[in-house]
Amino acid sequence: MALLTIDGIGKRFRGVQAVRDVSFAVEAGTIAALIGPNGAGKTTCFNLIAGSFPPDAGHVSFDGKALDGLRADQVCRAGIGRTFQIVRPFNALSVLDNVVIGALCGTRDVRQARIRAMEVLELLHLDGKAGQRAQTLTLPERKRLEVARALATGPRLLLLDEVMAGLRPTEIDEMVAIFTRLNRDTGLTILLVEHVMRAVMALARHIVVLHHGEVICRGTPDAVVRDPAVIESYLGSEAP
Amino acid sequence: MNRLLDTVPRRAIWALVALLALLLVAPAAVSPYLLSALVLMLYFACVGQSWNLMMGFAGLLSLGHALYAGLGGYVAAALWVHFGIGPWLGAPVAALIAAAAGGVIGALAFRFRVGGVYFALLTIAFAEFTRIGFEHFDWVGGAGGFFLPVAAQADPIDLRGGPILFYYLLLALTACLFLLCRGLSTSRIGYYWIAIREDEEAARALGIDVTHYKLLAITLSAALTALGGTIIAFYGNVLSPGDAFGAQRSIEMILAPLVGGIGTLFGPLLGAAALSLLGEGLRWAIDAAGIQLPGLTQLVYGVVLLLVVRFLPHGIWPALARRLRLER
Questions:
Q1: Quick check: B207 contacting A, CB < 8 Å?
Q2: Does the beta-carbon distance from A108 to B191 stay under 8 Å?
Q3: CA separation (Å) from A190 to A46, A182, B5, B225, B322?
Q4: Chain segment B231-252, per-residue pLDDT in tens
Q5: Is the CB of B111 inside 8 Å of chain A's CB atoms?
Q6: Do A104 and B202 touch (CB under 8 A)?
Q7: What is the predicted pLDDT for the residue at B7?
Q8: Which residues of chain B are under the pLDDT cut of 50?
């Protein structure tokens, strides 16, 4: 069953049609990826799903319910967690408090939220840094904090916006292992926007390729990387 | 370091208890003049703490907070003078009206996405509108001022009495506000306010209804400020639009948290104490030195403020707490 259904969404920013008539679905319990060259409209798609701004056309539905007109906070409470491409930690707060704020989405009780936050931090190997200020983290750690915060809200669908960018290969493999385990153990559905093909190929069961705001290809990873249009527009001839 | 969500160490609690005990017995030991200075100190601690809820927690800069204190004073005074409704009942009504005023300003600002400096300008504008409005509002005395009848006998029911009554009243309010802010800072509301202060969009993505929590901050801050405003109005017995709503009063109200430390629980208290000490100390020193130069006190006061802002940009409390190892 499709957990997330995108039906013909479009968005124009002044003269630029960022996204045009994009439709795809993400099956419950799977990991899907949205790929494409810079400026293809991937992050705009994410923002449309997450309620950062409303689409000009089309509909988004989650678990059979329309998300039309919902604000970002309402979308989060409906069960969709998101990370930002450019990480936005609450710099003045400790790593733990950052995640506690996410966990407070599911409970009013701060003590319970702390317990939940610690669990999530352990999952992302950040528990050793819990007491530090978020400002002091390295970039890979901040990326993990971004994921931890979104995960702490208790989402059924997690939107990951380029969380692998800037990571070393070993760090990428570590992140891949974390998401694989989360997906397997908790049934968490994940949609990722990613340029790092190493991660995409390892994680995604279904890939949607955007180019100039439109879907140019979709399918299994093996089929997508052999598609001539995808090679032409994005992967280049040295595709993996 | 997280200044707001810090757990208070035991040593700080003992220091606080000692301070409270000292303040409780102080009226027996000080001169009437010093008592009136202490009343003002506690008043500025109260309104500073209330202002800090908005700015220190939720990051909303209000430069027109005199609006809420003035409304508190005028509403409670008018209810008593015109309808015979005593201040114990009038104060909560005044708080509600101030909260409504804050709600209107917040709703307008957040609806039209007025933020940062422009939000601060909006708060000044509303305080100024209100000042001008009250200058032409003859029912409460207009520009000439609104006078409360002075009773010959002390009567705590109508808040008639000497400085000692108001001293203890304000001390109680200061303590209550401190406990309330402490409770809020460790609650979900406090966490959410700080998230909004740090990054609104990230806060929204974590399921926080930003507009709702900002409105909560401004209405609560306004209501609490109005309580302080009511007490000081009944202490002073005279309200004038220029003094009650003027920009100068708004600035005075934020000095204590600014000097003490914005976004900290102890900052407004410490700031109020430091400023009173500075003001009274200067007056005494200049008198003792026999210098007769009008405005010298204010001049030196201003220079000291500049130095504090220059060398302790986060206020006295964070620096002091680090020195005394009172923080994690």
A1: yes
A2: no
A3: 12, 10, 33, 47, 44
A4: 999 999 999 999 999 999 999 9
A5: no
A6: no
A7: 56
A8: 1-5, 328
- The answer to whether A45 and A7 have CB atoms below 8 angstroms apart is no
ipTM, 2 decimals?
A: 0.91
How many Cβ contacts (< 8 angstroms) between chains A and B?
77
Q: What are phi and psi of A210, to 5 degrees?
A: -105, 145
pLDDT at B199: 95
Interface residue B5 vs chain A (CB under 8 A): yes
Fold of the domain built from segment(s) B10-323 = ABC transporter involved in vitamin B12 uptake, BtuC (1.10.3470)
CA distance A209 to chain B (A): 25
Per residue in A182-215, pLDDT (tens digit) is 999 999 999 999 999 989 999 999 999 999 999 9
Q: Where along chain A do its domains lie?
A: 2-79+155-235, 89-153
The pLDDT assigned to B3 comes to 44
Q: The whole model's pTM is what?
A: 0.92
In this complex, do B207 and A77 lie within 8 Å of one another by their Cβ atoms?
yes
Using the Cβ of B192 and the Cβ atoms of chain A, whether some distance falls under 8 Å is answered with: yes
Among 2.60.40.10, 3.40.640.10, 3.30.70.20, 3.40.50.300, what is the CATH number of A2-79+155-235? 3.40.50.300
Single-letter amino acid code for the residue at A42: K
Distance CA B24, CA A182 (A): 58
Question: Does the beta carbon of B204 lie under 8 angstroms from any beta carbon of chain A?
Answer: yes
